[in-house]
User: Fold this.
Amino acid sequence: MAAAIFFCIMPITAALAAPGAAGRAETAAPSPAVPASTARVLAYRTGRHAGFLRLVVDLSGPVGHQATAMSARDFLLTLPGARWLGPADAAARNRGGPLKVAVLDGSGADGTMRFRVFSPGAAFIRRVFVLRPRPGAAERTWRLAMDLVPVAAPPAGGGNPAGYRTASLPSPHGLM
Assistant:
């Protein structure tokens, strides 16, 4: 049986608009079910890679997470139940990075830690994933990464007047 290829056509303005414009923020799928976390956030860092920007959060254990695009340049990474254990000067250490990050500690009533991430230009969330510690490694740090892909501004008065973008998605894994 041939593999299916799916096509998605959506207005770029709806995909990148602020929450008020479309009525809601775009949200990436939450992480698979993870029990209430007791993970500690040890540190974070940002980096520029070929074609994307990355936020990496170092953790003491697995954690549930959800990434939300609040607008074209403003993203929210939510870690339910996680607690900050990182250095007090974490913001100063990351001042020169490509992404600006505000850490909102989870010591409030809901116990949810949030990272507010600001991109220098319009972007979209490519993926959010967790890396387990390497077996046998002395360092037992888990890593949560969020990749943001910059989006070029549409050409003024030309190009694609309807504002549509086409993306092809791979067939669902394991289906034939």
User: Anything to note?
Assistant: The CA atoms of residues 14 and 22 lie 6 Å apart. The mean pLDDT is 73. Residues 12-16 form the longest helix (5 residues).
